[in-house]
Amino acid sequence: DSTTHEPHETRWKSLAHLLVDRAARHPDRPALTFLPDDSMDGAEAEQALTYAELHRRVRAVALRLVRETGAVPGDRAMLLFPPGLEFMIGFMACEMARLIPVPTSYPKPGRAMPRLDTSVADCQPSVLISDQETIAGIDSNRLSAETAALPMVATDASIQEDLARPDSLDDELPLGEIESTDLALLQYTSGSTSDPKGVMVSHANLLSNLESIRQAFGIEWSGDDSDDYERGLFWLPPFHDMGLIGGILEPLYVGGHAILMSPRSFLARPMRWLRAISDYKATISGAPNFAYQLCVDRIDAAQADSLDLSGWELAFCGAEPINADTLQQFTDRFFNAGFRGETFCPCYGLAEATLMAASCRSGQAPRLLDVDKDELAHGRGIIVRQSSLGETVPEASQASVSGDGAVRRLVSSGRAAHTMTVLVVEPDARRVQPDGEIGEIWLAGPSVASGYWKREEVTAEVFGATLADGDPAETFLRTGDLGFVHDGEVYVSGRRKDLVILRGRNLFPQDIEATVKGLLQANVLQCAAVATTGRTGDALTIAAEVSRHVDSEELPDIVRHIRRAIIDDHEVDARQVLITRPGGIPLTTSGKVQRQQCRAMIEAGELAARYQWNRNRFIDDSESV
Ligand code: 1ZZ
């Protein structure tokens, strides 16, 4: 019921130390490459930086930050960048100047950026770092007064002068003063604009998680002189923990090369991702489940056969529920291209634990468990059969399945990371559950962050959990995720929290509900935004109680408006919208929407709707709203 490992030593005290060291040891090795959308068709050149070039640019920007803005160590710096390499220059410059970088989502030229404004109000940064083009495209009238008043520094403002600066200036950036408990990153949990929470990730947290990831996946250190270094290839956004830490920092940590493309480039043509893995002989890549499914749906067998994926050693999959069918279909589709099921490494983690909490070990086919759906609903992971990806499994004997005989196939998220303690706890009694019993996943270890920025109360609630029969000084992070342990492996089976995870992105239901309510004002009496489980993972379902004064003929238009507003504000489309009569949505006694019950009713087809709209296809970007 628990898996504990000894802590280990890390080699560097901070990312700044790491960069200086690597630039000295292998200056000419490529560190970062960005593939613009058109570069894959040969129309635009790729952009690249060696370790020495990255170091020089980072150092120069760090000096400018210190000299031009008056920012002092410990100050926060907002990072506002479109996809590209400048983000990492800004990020590492903060590390070197001992400022705390705060990544935010991609800037929208001329548009309001509510998430940026709420993060600014929350963490009170002293500078905003971006590039010249983005800064020129910002419409200050659409930002909060506080954001608009921030000094803005462009990383690419004076590249030539920056590169010409003498090395002796290093004295002005005294790395010796960095403490491992200083913050390396303030990671806003994606989503909630009404309730921003910045996870405080220290240098020690970050380096310990980078090392745990390296050990879990058996990633080799790249030698100083060799040409044989790891190549990571990612389209994940760097303002999310998985894109930043898994996609960029891990390759740099082991001395490898991170090759990046934009999420949009992948979404428009998923083949570009796999083509780039094939062309650049990438060894490491990964994404949430939906991305693998998108490849299966959009890439036909002939295209698949034109790829060479045999050099891909680690295909991690995490950040949202993992679907065994997706992994199997992907393995089948890309078998001729040299892809094997053992390459898949399902993993589980969250920003509050820096990134990774548990993972499958590389070289082993992911483990699958078929569990009795009925028992699962009652909190027990009763196992009907066990298998591994790719294994043909016999049909379960009906006798072993209760109720209507339905089973749910769960994919193992693997073992606890090397320094992480993973417990499954009955949250009310605060006792550790026996194997196979579902409870809340609790974590402890050196990569669990110390809390949320300036939020003592929630921090105590989320990061300060204690066991009823445990040492009160021993605290755990409550993840809000539900799961169980079987054979030392973690199976995530659901969520206590109401979070909606779409395409690996976390959305807070309150924010989406606020959009719907704001749109229809008095005509919406209640609204619930919930994640319902579909063929390929979670989908967003909206249930809205609409006043009886609204005519039925208006409902299709209302649904279109709801979808449009959600796309505008949150960049996601609902898969299902249900309009109910007043009283149709379940509420608590205190009048709050009961999202979990609402979700269960929708999935069981028990929510009575006046009008219902469904999108059948998993993704249809072209559909107009
Ligand atoms: P976030 C070499 N969730 O999603 C690179 N995993 O954080 C290695 N639900 O805070 C990279 N099943 O945004 C290793 N398996 O959301 C990457 O997401 C390790 O509800 C994976 O609470 C890191 C994912 C980081 C991430 C966290 C929430 C969780 C949970 C959900 C994550 C899941 C999963 C089901 C999984």
Q: Explain this structure to me?
A:
This is Long-chain-fatty-acid--CoA ligase. GO terms for molecular function: adenylyltransferase activity; long-chain fatty acid-CoA ligase activity; phosphopantetheine binding. Its EC number is 6.2.1.3. By secondary structure, the chain is α/β, with parallel strands linked by helices. A hairpin with a 6-residue loop joins β14 (344-349) and β15. The two termini are 48 Å apart. Mean pLDDT is 89; it is low at 1-9 and 617-625. It binds 5'-O-[(S)-(dodecanoyloxy)(hydroxy)phosphoryl]adenosine. Residues 189-190, 213, 241-242, 246, 250, 284, 286, 316, 318-322, 346-351, 355-356, 413, 479, 481, 492, 495, 499, 501, 506 line the site of 5'-O-[(S)-(dodecanoyloxy)(hydroxy)phosphoryl]adenosine.
Counted by DSSP, the helix tally is: 19
Low-pLDDT stretches? 1-9, 617-625
Shape: globular
Q: Which ligands appear in the coordinates?
A: 5'-O-[(S)-(dodecanoyloxy)(hydroxy)phosphoryl]adenosine
Class by SSE composition: alpha/beta
Tell me the Rg in angstroms: 24 Å
What portion of residues is helical?
25-40%
Beta-strand portion reads: 15-25%
Q: How many beta-strand elements?
A: 30
Q: For the report, how would you describe the main beta sheet?
A: 6 strands, antiparallel
Mean of pLDDT:
89
Oligomer type: single chain
Q: What is the straight-line distance between the termini?
A: 48 Å
